[in-house]
Specification:
By secondary structure, the protein is mostly helical. It has a domain of 32 residues. It is built from 2 helices and no strands. It starts with 13 loop residues before the first helix and ends with a helix.
Length: 50
């Protein structure tokens, strides 16, 4: 069964959006993929700190 998707809207300063845009172009990935990957990495960090 596929997990239900939830929507997240964030506000960023223009300077941070520019950083994200440039990084996305460098690694040839979209913002959603990068943010989801980072969130998954937080779970791993939480397990290590237990």
């Amino acid at each position: 069964m596929e997990e239900q998707l939830k929507r997240l809207n964030i506000n960023l300063p223009a300077s941070e959006m520019q950083i994200l845009d440039v990084y996305c172009k460098q690694v040839k990935r979209n913002k959603t993929d990068l943010i989801r990957e980072y969130i998954r990495s937080l779970e791993k960090k939480m397990r290590k700190s237990e």
